[in-house]
């Protein structure tokens, strides 16, 4: 979420470690999180945790490799500059396209998920809308904020983040008290588990995506590797802890067989939150969970579309005037909103495709750049990720395997639960 970055930048005196960690955690925690229990239902709890540890490790290391490269450049160098200078124009273009693709498809995923959750909330208030219209309301409302200014996005996301922390702990805290360990460790339903991990892997990768913020952190802290490393480690650990709580809360309350129904209904955010609401003791806590889900997806939408907005303005050379911003807003918001109207329930499919493109810029490219940079500066005493070329190979392999899993799952060659 670039906006948190800007929020942090404006406060000169607040270059705390926690600020950087929150930027990373804030970007990572988003729509991916809502897909985890649904796509993890097949392998269930223990395997989900094992997978998340592995994905966390690889995505942490790829972020650190990106930092390693970034530290050979002046603070303020963009991702685009890093790829151009290390890997050349071909990879620069591939990288840029994959970033733009992820931002666009995530914007669509958020409209789909946002529409679904807004609809779920409105139903509770007795208002019935087609989901595509709810998606439109969600997108237009938030697009307007991005259109006004970056500052407006900053202010509103800061408020949203505060609200998310409070509602997450109230709602999930209560779900954690009610969990049933039998559900977690002795799941019902069919006896095959492990094979379902393959199709779930891409969703794990998306939920640990934050890499666009690494250059922003370098710009923010300057060449201070130890603080940036701590911020990345802490930020990804916070995200990991939130995901574990979320998996415990969902899988400890909804039986494995219950997910078959959620998946049959498309597995969108509103369906999952609806199923959780069904098992929660009080209406008040149910509202907290719904508010949390609304805020989580809305703040991610603002972060991602602001990034896309700035990227497109730069690419097409649109200026900051009212008409320039209107042009940028049009190319930013119209394609994902139209998709949201045509296919209101593509949430999970979109997250899967985001993963496919993210394997390039959040795993493979950072590893390749670090490899290159070590050849260019063999004597450098700047920060180097430990583990040598082996670690680089592991990250590249992780990216390739995850991308392959997505393609195989799309071709219906992998077992998918439900
Ligand atoms: N991690 C974000 C998505 C994301 C991926 C890659 C980079 C930035 C953001 C989410 O789960 O919603």
From TrEMBL:
The chain crosses the membrane at residues 12-38, 44-69, 90-111, 131-149, 156-177, 193-210, 231-250, 262-281, 288-309, 347-371, 383-409. It holds the Pfam family Trp_Tyr_perm. Its main location: membrane. It is a multi-pass membrane protein. It is found in: Cell inner membrane. It comes from the Bacteria. InterPro entries: Amino_acid_transport_2, Trp_tyr_transpt. Keywords: Amino-acid transport, Cell inner membrane, Cell membrane, Membrane, Transmembrane, Transmembrane helix, Transport. Involved in transporting aromatic amino acids across the cytoplasmic membrane. Belongs to the amino acid/polyamine transporter 2 family. Mtr/TnaB/TyrP permease subfamily. This is Aromatic amino acid permease. It comes from Shewanella eurypsychrophilus.
């Amino acid at each position: 979420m670039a906006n948190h970055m800007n929020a942090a930048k404006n406060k000169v005196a607040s270059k705390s470690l926690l600020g950087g960690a929150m930027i990373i955690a804030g970007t990572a925690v988003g729509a991916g999180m809502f897909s985890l229990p649904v796509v993890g239902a097949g392998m269930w709890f223990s395997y989900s945790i094992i997978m998340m540890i592995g994905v966390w490790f690889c995505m942490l290391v790829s972020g650190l490799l990106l930092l390693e490269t970034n530290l050979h450049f002046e603070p303020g160098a963009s991702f685009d500059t890093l790829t151009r200078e290390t890997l050349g124009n071909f990879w620069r273009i591939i990288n840029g396209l994959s970033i733009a693709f992820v931002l666009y498809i995530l914007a669509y995923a958020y409209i789909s998920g946002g529409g679904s959750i807004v609809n779920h909330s409105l139903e509770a208030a007795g208002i019935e809308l087609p989901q595509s219209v709810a998606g439109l309301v969600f997108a237009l409302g938030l697009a307007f904020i991005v259109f006004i200014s970056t500052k407006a996005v900053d202010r509103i996301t800061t408020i949203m983040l505060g609200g998310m922390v409070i509602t997450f702990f109230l709602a999930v805290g209560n779900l954690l008290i009610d969990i049933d360990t039998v559900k977690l460790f002795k799941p019902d339903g069919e006896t095959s588990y492990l094979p379902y991990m393959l199709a779930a892997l891409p969703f794990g990768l998306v939920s640990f995506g934050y890499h666009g913020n690494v250059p922003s952190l370098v710009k923010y802290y300057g060449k201070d590797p130890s603080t940036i490393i701590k911020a990345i480690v802490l930020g990804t650990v916070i995200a990991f802890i939130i995901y574990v709580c979320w998996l415990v809360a969902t899988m400890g309350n909804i039986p494995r067989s219950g997910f078959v129904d959620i998946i049959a209904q498309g597995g969108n955010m509103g369906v999952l939150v609806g199923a959780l609401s069904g098992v929660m003791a009080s209406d008040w806590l149910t509202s907290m969970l719904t508010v949390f889900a609304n805020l989580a997806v809305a703040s991610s939408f603002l972060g991602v579309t602001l990034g896309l907005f700035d990227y497109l303005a730069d690419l097409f050379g649109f200026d900051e005037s009212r008409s320039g911003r209107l042009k940028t807003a049009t190319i930013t918001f119209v394609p994902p909103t139209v998709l949201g109207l045509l296919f209101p329930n593509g949430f999970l499919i979109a997250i899967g495709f985001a993963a496919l493109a993210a394997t390039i810029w959040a795993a493979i490219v950072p590893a390749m750049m670090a490899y290159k940079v070590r050849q260019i500066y063999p004597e450098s005493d700047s920060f180097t990720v430990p583990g040598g070329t082996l670690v680089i190979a592991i990250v590249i392999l992780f990216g390739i395997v995850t991308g392959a899993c997505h393609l195989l799952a799309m071709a219906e060659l992998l077992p998918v639960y439900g």
